[in-house]
Amino acid sequence: MSSGRLMVLRLLAAIFAVAVSVASAAAHEVRPAYLDLREETPGVFSGLLKTPMQGDARLALSTSFSGRTELVSPMVSRPTGSAMIQTWLMRAAAPLAGQTLSIEGLQATMTDALVRIEFLDGSVWLERLTPDSAEAVIPAAQSTLEVAWTYLASGIEHILFGFDHLLFVSSLMLIVRDWRMLVKTITAFTAAHSITLTFATMGWATLPSAPVETMIALSIVLVGAEAIRLEHGETSLTTTWPWIVAFVFGLLHGFGFAGALVEVGLPRGDIPLALVSFNLGVEIGQLAFIALVLTAVHTVRRLVPIPRRATVASAYAIGIVAAFWSAERLGAMFL
């Protein structure tokens, strides 16, 4: 093997190792903080702040407004294992619209905070705050374009940080070598998870989150194993008709996507728009990921031939990470 080819292979191995390490640490997705305020009576809001936890430690986050607010009930805190939930009831001396909302302490973190405020008239304000932009002015109302953009961005962010969903797509790409079949397979996956995403967020069909997340991890293990069998010259339903398998597992992944959207909620007056925008965001992120992977593979192939063992090693690496997630999530279900 030439020194140039060996160097490229070592570089690819290093990049993949880092990616797998990041994915293993993140498990499902980068967990943002979440603030939910709902106006129960004029000027009185119920509040919920969820902050990620690592062991017994949690992010030191709190909310503040430019106008005066006061607690109507004491703040109650309860840990859920992966997050700390704080709930309270507050009264705003002046309308929240036009005030500046800040997430104190966010600047010192590496996470985002998703903010949702639902007013008594049914209107909803949704905003994503970041360490670089930890405050925002609450508008009187959001335009249709603002609602669409907010949910579109939320969908893109969810898929790009949904490492288990991306690994499933990666494993599909290992067993589908023809670009026409790849388009058909990804289309089937998209159609399937769009169906269950819609059904779950509308409340027409639901599944418990823990079993769904476990089954998603197991689906990655299965497809990864099929990629290895294909490299050994064996065939199966998965390798012959990958679009059927993608559709079946896509139904399951749709319930996983719905978890994020159900948590955020849908604005009463723009439910179809928000649902379509979120789903479109998921697809944009998914297609961007596929394009990135195909571009990277094409670039490497122009430099050196990709050996067969690289595909097998990738399938094993994906399978190992997914098996770890499966065991971790299965164990969490019984603790």
UniProtKB/TrEMBL annotation:
Signal peptide extent: 1-25
Membrane-spanning ranges: 148-169, 181-204, 210-228, 240-262, 274-297, 309-327
Coiled-coil blocks: none
Keyword tags: Membrane, Signal, Transmembrane, Transmembrane helix
Highest taxon listed in the record's lineage: Bacteria
Protein name as it appears in the record: HupE / UreJ protein
